[in-house]
Amino acid sequence: MKDTKPTAISTTVFERDHAVLTGDGFVNSVYPGWTDCEVNVVINEAMGANFCQLLVTPEPNAILKGATEKTQTFFYIVAGSANLSLNDENNEILSQGSYAYVPIGQSYLLNRFEVNTRILTFHKKFENLEGYDIPSPIIGHESKIAKTIYCGDPDLLMQNLLPDQENKAFDMAINIFTYHPGANLPFVETHVMEHGLMYLQGQGIYRLSDKWYPVKKGDCIWMAPYCPQWFGALGKEPTTYIYYKNVNRFPIHP
Ligand code: UGY
Ligand code: MN
Predict the structure, then answer these.
(1) Residue 59: inside a domain, yes or no?
(2) Which residues are found with C-beta within 5 Å of the ion, ligand 2?
(3) What pLDDT sits at residue 2?
(4) 162, 195, 246: residue to mutate for ligand 1 pocket, most atoms within 8 A of CB
(5) In angstroms, what is the span from residue 151 Cα to ligand 2's centroid?
(6) Which CATH number characterizes residue 51's domain?
(7) CB count in 10 Å sphere of residue 77
(8) Is 94 part of any domain?
């Protein structure tokens, strides 16, 4: 939450190939169809990204109503709860840790929010893959997703919330990455895939390009393609972040 005292100090950083968004610089945006809520555009094309990441803080009576045309949407409940209906059907209660993947060509309605609900969303223009059907909607909960060992280190646990590894029709992955205290990425990754992330728990140090940043629960990061990246977890509790990654498409259009 933002400190309302006047200040010229900020921990937000914006560089050509990465950004660290701690929330102290957020200014609310308004979107048609989304009423009675604060919307912060954490990451989007204006900063050089190829996807969008929003943080939404709804009032209990807020309405988030819309339709996905060319852009698929992923909703994740960071805190609180909400009612979700897709295509005017299947009313579902989403609680903390629940998520909904809304593919292109669908309509959605989120309403009846618990007090202090916070929702993280990821949006990516869908790139069709010849020979594959457009993915169907998915509603799930992180507690139902297996944790797999990452890079052979049992202190690094990965959860794939979307079935992008089994079904190449998905062109984005949304993963939850848990680091046990003291664990770190085994090497400085530098890759064509882009990331947007938000810390759900814990803290640590992120290396982005040639800079080093202390990060903690609530902070968000954008990493452009090829931004060198490394993270080491600090503290006595596991550190967890949820992140976006573009996957499963040839790096150049044929
Ligand atoms: O999937 C990934 O590329 C992941 N290991 N990157 C990251 O956590 N920065
Ligand atoms: Mn990575």
Answers:
(1) yes
(2) 189
(3) 60
(4) 195
(5) 12
(6) 2.60.120.10
(7) 25
(8) yes
